[in-house]
Specification:
The complex is a heterodimer of chains A (162) and B (241). Chain A is mostly helical and 162 residues long. Chain A has helices spanning 2-28, 49-68, 76-108, 123-155, 157-160; strands at residues 31-36, 39-44. The longest helix of chain A is centred in the middle third of the chain and has 33 residues, at 76-108. Chain B is 64% helix and 9% strand. The two termini of chain B are 28 Å apart. The chains are: A mainly alpha (162), B mainly alpha (241).
Chain lengths: 162, 241
């Protein structure tokens, strides 16, 4: 039973790592230059601090997920892993939320602040950022599943001999 | 027989942790030696401390989240400026900034309101209902009813406590409001988005106070969850404090 638990968590954590790496890489490679009305406009992830935070947070999530596969279940380190899982989950959720807010302003604008939406001008950049957000959401969801599964294993020791 | 009675006393102890009622420990160690009684009293003191800490943390978390929601909800500022001069008459226009003009701030207020009401509700339930078993039962049922309405996965949904979910909700609300606040303060040159904080100074500062308060609330709720999980660690099937 412990072997099955280890296998399932290893597979889920690899999925988290993969999705996090995909999110970070897609965000980093989002770059577009366009010109409208003679003004040149360049859109890059590093121009927005929220996007930089997104990249850093998902890079941390990727490294963390890979490192945690090496922890043996049942040792004291596994209790610490449950705690740090929650903290990293909150970090990823915060990154996705912050990026979502900026992406919403970029797509819909904010007329009260006089901010025009930029998506009609840099459409490929917008699609790139949307893709990164989707990968981030998938990573967050699977991380959430891992937390629930770990809690399930801890709370019912007969099931998974944790 | 003996070990079942000792297990009962341990569960009685843990159920009293958030309740603060007079524990009936004097009845429990019936066959205890004087040395055992001393360690039991220390144990009782330690648990009383944990209970007090839990209540203090919960009130602090409730206070900070309610303050954050209230400050952001009442956050509005307007000023009038001359926009054009027609002939000799100046044309004035009022510019307002309200929290509901930004979806991120609306989500922030809602998330903080949910967290604040949850904390207040749990505090009130644990204080008002003196019978400790019904108190924990009511809180557990509240958890389960709300969770089962909102979570689709059922095999382990009972094990993730509502407090954790609400803490994550609060964290996302605070993060999204912080990113919008940063955008409002610094603007984004490349997207031609001008900062608004120079025109709406007190709107920005009040929003900043609300966001900081919400972040403190998140930290308090994290500490609360950890403490409550550690206190209930030997009761594996009831996770929602």
């Amino acid at each position: 039973m412990a072997k099955l638990y280890r296998l399932i968590t290893a597979v889920l954590r690899l999925a988290v790592a993969g999705a996090a790496a995909a999110a970070a890489i897609i965000m980093v490679t989002s770059h577009e230059t366009t010109s409208f009305f003679g003004i040149e406009m360049e859109a890059k992830y590093s121009y927005t601090p929220s996007f930089i935070f997104f990249v850093v947070a998902f890079a941390v999530g990727f490294a963390y997920s890979l490192l945690v596969i090496l922890v043996r279940p049942g040792s004291t380190a596994s209790r610490l892993v449950l705690l740090s899982d929650v903290v990293v989950g909150m970090l990823l959720a915060g990154a996705v939320a912050a990026t979502g807010a900026i992406a919403d302003v970029g797509k819909n604008g904010n007329e009260h602040a006089g901010w025009l939406p930029i998506c009609p001008q840099v459409r490929a950049y917008c699609v790139h950022v949307e893709g990164a957000l989707i990968a981030g959401f998938v990573s967050l969801l699977v991380h959430f599943l891992i937390i629930m599964y770990s809690l399930h294993a801890v709370a019912e020791p007969l099931c998974c001999s944790h | 027989m003996l070990e079942s009675s000792s297990r009962l006393t341990v569960t009685d102890l843990s159920m009293d942790l958030e309740h603060g009622s007079k524990t009936k420990l004097s009845a429990a160690p019936a066959a205890a030696t004087p040395a055992c009684k001393c360690s039991n009293r220390l144990l009782q003191l330690g648990d009383r401390l944990v209970a007090v800490q839990l209540v203090v943390l919960r009130t602090a978390a409730a206070l900070t989240t309610v303050v954050a929601a209230a400050v952001m909800a009442l956050n509005t500022q307007s000023y009038t400026a001359v926009v054009a001069i027609i002939g000799t008459k100046p044309l004035m226009q009022t510019f307002t900034a309200k929290f509901r003009y930004t979806p991120a701030f609306v989500y922030f207020v809602i998330a903080n309101a949910i967290a604040g009401t949850y904390n207040l509700l749990v505090l009130i339930i644990r204080r008002l209902i003196l019978q400790r078993r019904t108190a924990s039962l009511v809180v557990h049922m509240l958890d389960m009813v709300i969770l089962s309405c909102s979570l689709i996965i059922s095999f382990s949904s009972l094990l993730l406590s509502l407090a954790q979910v609400i803490m994550a909700l609060l964290a996302t609300g605070a993060a999204t409001a912080a990113s919008m606040a940063e955008l409002g303060k610094k603007g984004n040159l490349h997207a031609r988005w001008n900062p608004i904080c120079d025109k709406f100074g007190s709107f920005c500062s009040r929003g900043g106070i609300a966001i900081v308060s919400s972040f403190i609330g998140v930290a308090l709720m994290l500490a609360l969850n950890l403490l409550s999980a550690a206190a209930n660690a030997h009761r594996p099937n009831v996770v929602g404090q």
